[in-house]
Amino acid sequence: xxxxxxxxxxxxxxxxxxxxxxxxxxxxxxxxxxxxxxxxxxxxxxxxxxxxxxxxxxxxxxxxxxxxxxxxxxxxxxxxxxxxxxxxxxxxxxxxxxxxxxxxxxxxxxxxxxxxxxxxxxxxxxxxxxxxxxxxxxxxxxxxxxxxxxxxxxxxxxxxxxxxxxx
Length: 167
Prior knowledge:
By secondary structure, the protein is an alpha+beta fold. Strand 4 (86-91) and strand 5 form a beta hairpin. It has a domain at 52-160. Helices cover 20% and strands 27% of the residues. Keywords: Capsid protein, Virion. This is Spore coat protein. InterPro entries: Spore_coat_protein_Z/Y (IPR019593). Pfam families: Spore-coat_CotZ.
């Protein structure tokens, strides 16, 4: 027996949630996902834009945000950097994707005059190993040139951040 007033799917939870959606639809005007909004912003559907990137956060099947790591050699040393924010570069038919790590604009190098920007503390201080997406600044994201390949079949959720000019 159903416990929702308009539906009888055989599941109390489903019936009630369907009733809630119907009621909300009566009072809400429009709802878009963050990805729909970011894609519309990227394409300029909401006005002219200089955007070229929809940053994404991927979630593993255990519902935890995925943090990718990579490095880029410069000045004869290598520093491994981690990020939860990515720019999708390509997706093949087998579900493999090349994604580029994104960092806030100030992550491209030590900040001039920042006494804590020594080589030893720079990576930690500037967020190259954040513990969660909330630890990473998503304002003024920039492409890093660090790309990794991921199997999209390993993910169950994607969150899109606002479109940006990352390149």
